[in-house]
Design a protein that fits this description.
Helices cover 80% and strands 0% of the residues. By secondary structure, the protein is an all-alpha fold. The longest helix has 36 residues.
């Protein structure tokens, strides 16, 4: 079995993702119920913030585990390039 940077907190991560999934279903119900636009947008903002928190946790684990391991194996430049590309993708929105 491969150990990832998030392996130790996998249960917490899955719980958080299930909570976000529930929030998304809630927004779907809000739209189906013709709820006020600002209320829907507020919930979408909360979902984005929750996803950002998950992403930051994954990045932290990646740096502490995968990038550190790659540096020990002489792959520090490759790992840094991969990390920065991932950060760049996360920062591109709207």
């Amino acid at each position: 079995m491969t150990t990832r940077g998030y392996t130790a907190t996998k249960d917490q991560l899955q719980t958080r993702l299930r909570r976000i999934e529930g929030q998304v279903r809630g927004v779907e119900r809000m739209v189906a119920d013709d709820r006020y636009c600002i209320d829907v947008l507020t919930q979408i903002s909360a979902i984005q913030a929750a996803l950002d928190k998950v992403a930051l946790g994954l990045l932290d684990g990646h740096v502490r585990h995968c990038v550190a391991e790659g540096a020990r194996d002489g792959k520090d430049a490759e790992m840094s390039t991969e990390l920065m590309a991932a950060v760049g993708r996360l920062m591109r929105r709207g």
